[in-house]
User: What shape does this take?
Amino acid sequence: MNSLQVENPMVAAFLMDPIKRERIRPFLGQENTVKGAAEELGISISLMHHHTKRMLDLGLIQVVREVPRAGKAIFWYASVADAFYVPFSLTPFETMQAAYLKGEKPWQERFIEGLLKVALHLETPEKTWGVLIRRDHHGDFDVTSSIGPDQEAPDLPGAQWSNWTEIHLTPDEALALRMELQNLWLRYRGKKNGQRYLLRLGLAKTVD
Assistant: This one.
């Protein structure tokens, strides 16, 4: 793998921005056109043109071939390296935790926006969304979304679902669960057909 260590603060700022960083994905370690990249990212061609020019100016991508055709030629681009390493010394973050929180924020906002867009359609004048604090069917303390004081959140249309929970695992069980989650992610990440969903998976040891 051809890895490049970033030394330019402007390049580091671009790659550490979670939204801008996504724009290089269609070109990372492979060739692509502006149209192909726009389709992969689900954005307009004009917006992809803007980001492509910016990445060219920063030296992140380069033209690898030009295909002549009637009218304007088609340019194919690829990243200048297969991987980019950004030292934390080039970022504005004081800690790794601050960097991770910055990177997670836009994804978390998009995830919640997607959940609420569907959930709010279920409200009626008599039943509105709120938070239900109770013990669940297993006797465990539980905080869940609820429509009204006596009805926990119904199954949302469109296969929407989200949950946080603290569980108890042995080291071997935790490793097995991590592998199971990773395999589940690998199973679905390459799908191209169907609607677009945000999938959030993770496992971390609780810090007291």
In short: The CA atoms of residues 6 and 86 lie 5 Å apart. The beta strands are 3-5, 61-67, 74-79, 83-85, 129-135, 141-147.
